[in-house]
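Subject: Sanity check before I submit

Could someone independently write out the structure tokens for this chain? I want to compare against mine line by line before I put it in a report. The sequence has 294 residues.
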Amino acid sequence: MSDEYGLVEPEAVDEPGDEWEAIDVTDTEADRIARRRDRKFDQFRKRIKDNESLKVEASVFDDATYAALYKLVQDGWVDALGGPISTGKEANVYSALGGADAADELGAETPEVAIKVYRINASDFRDMRDYLVGDPRFEGIGGKKSQVVIAWVRKEYANLQRARRAGVRVPHPLAVERNVLVMEYIGAEEGRAKRLAEVNVENPQTAYEVVREYMRRLHTAGLVHGDLSEYNMVIHDGELVIIDLGQAVTVHHPNAQEFLERDCRNVAAFFSRQGIDVTGDELYEFVVADDERF
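---
Independent answer below. Compare away.
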């Protein structure tokens, strides 16, 4: 592993963290495509269903999800779908070949992208609501499963955008449509990038300093990861990358401090096992030190 871990530079922003994005959870173009069910969409849907490598499951791919993928292809974000990278209770992640717009955004001729497909019938969608209720971006969100999941996906996209602007190395978000998120693929030909929990950390002091700086930048930008640990950080091309920002909340969320304290305990515990003399309280003080809100 690298001794540097690729600390990136933040973009210049005014009053970071005091603004938040309005997030729309009303019907999307994918819903309208699914209702129309024209010939081209039906042909696309059949090709996906017949693709053995996708391991299509009824709980993941409904008509509106097919329509979301169809629109992402039409919009130039995706050219061809690959196989599964990972599966989870809430979402499956698939590899794909990026389209023209993805190539332009990532500066690569034939980029590989990751497609994260959230299950509309997620079994623990009520847990999702705990991270949405109290977030000012989602005031008035209803209890309908589809609205909660769609809000979650749009929140992950917005969180990734904000983290990048703050100078935090995260997967580059490309597009979002209904319950489908397209982003930069973090990995290589041999597979996905290794999580911090899966590798031998050769320079834990440097790695810790990068992680704590990213946590501070996130917080200054108004975000708390909410589930940060060695399982949500990976090493890619010598860079330390923070992943899985779906549950991240703004600092205005009523549980933001509790989530941050938990993140600090988890990160400090991991690096303590790597021989670094640090506590959760010390990490917390570093993260909030320059923030007048705390």
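---
OP: Matches mine. For the report I'm noting this point. The radius of gyration is 19 Å.
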